[in-house]
Amino acid sequence: MGAHSHEAAAKASALIESLPWLQQFQGKTIVVKFGGNAMVSEALKHAFAEDMVFLRQVGIRPVIVHGGGPQISAELDRRGIASEFRGGLRVTSPAAFEVVHEVLTARVGPEIASLINSHGLLGETLSGETDGLFAGTRRGTVVDGEYVDLGLVGDVTRVDPRPVLEILDAGRIPVVSSIAPDAATPGQSLNVNADSAAASLAIALGAAKLVILTDVAGLYRDWPDRESLISTIDSAELRALLPSLESGMIPKMTACLDAVDGGVPKAAIIDGRIPHSILLEAFTAEGIGTEVITAMEEA
Q1: CA-CA distance, 109 to 111, in Å (whole number)?
Q2: DSSP state of 62
Q3: Strand ranges (DSSP E) for 10-57?
Q4: pLDDT, mean over the chain
Q5: pLDDT band at 189 (very low <50, low <70, confident <90, very high)
Q6: Residue 154 has pLDDT above 90, yes or no
Q7: 23-32 b/e with 16+ CB inside 10 Å = b?
């Protein structure tokens, strides 16, 4: 067999390996949280868009939820507005919120949609403010035992999935920015952690899976021991491990836990620094990253 035949056989074998996954997720919804390095590298952005279009083309219904941390920080710097994080969350003053809102809804969302649309007219942007998709409640955080007011920061406390379902049913890919109207203050919206928003949306959509792109290979049982990467963990073990994780990982793993607790069968964090990481995670038997499953599956 020549080199070309070997290569073709390897491609065919990879496609066949994906068959059980395609059968399992055919017609199902997968919520993907897009952020981190994957969001600032041109090559990774293009690969991500290709992955989303591929999934839609083979009959899976991807929904993208995005943050925009690097872009927001850069724009705040440009305007001379201080960036402050407490307990891993951005303190959001009214001036900072204006920047957050503008960057997410006018820049990041449309850019993701246009990358998707370069492969066919499929991407459609919306935010938690669109047709009552999200409602939020302001939240603070606790740092070293002290309550900290985070300003215009909230949690998603209600989801009406109809605007997203309409886009999915029309054959398109929803691109959702993590802004939520404040249920207590008409006319005011809140900056919501995109990992958390993605988990809330996955639950409301009855998604088959939540996938969160991160800047690490996955969850380690004993960091920095790279041999301790966890490929699968159940929700009970993750709940016990959560307090010992480093602060940047806590919102991501909490989102996975919330999703699984809310009825989403699987939630995974995967390394967004790897091109086509979503297809690798989906279509290869060993997968990549760390998958969270319900404790009952282990029993």
Answers
A1: 5
A2: E
A3: 29-34
A4: 92
A5: very high
A6: yes
A7: eebeeebbbb
Q: What percent of the chain has pLDDT over 70?
A: 96
Residue 212 and residue 259 in contact, taking contact as beta carbons nearer than 8 Å = no
- The dihedral formed by the CA atoms of 140, 253, 196 and 66, expressed in degrees to the nearest 10: 120
pLDDT at 43: 94
DSSP string, 75-105: HHHHTTPPP-EETTEE-B-HHHHHHHHHIII
Is 14's pLDDT higher than 90? no
Predicted confidence at residue 10, as pLDDT, reads 87
What does the alpha-carbon distance between residue 154 and residue 259 come to, in Å, rounded to a whole number? 18
Please state the separation of Cα 188 from the chain's center in Å: 24
Residue 239 pLDDT grade (very low, low, confident, very high; cuts 50, 70, 90): very high
Token digits of residue 73: 């920080």
Cβ distance 253 to 238 under 8 Å?
A: yes
- Write down the pLDDT at residue 298: 44
Say if residues 164 and 203 touch (Cβ distance below 8 Å). no
173: nearest Cα among 46, 6, 50: 50
Percent of residues in the chain assigned helix, strand, coil, to nearest 5: 45, 25, 30
| Cα distance between residue 194 and residue 66, in whole Å | 6
pLDDT over threshold 50, residue 252: yes
Asked, as a colleague might, if the bond just before 275 is cis with ω within 30 of 0, I would say no
Token pair listed for 87: 């307990």
- The full set of domains in the chain, from first to last, is 25-298 (3.40.1160.10)
Query: Which residues have CB under 8 Å from 92's CB, separation 6+?
Result: 100, 150, 151, 152, 153, 190, 191
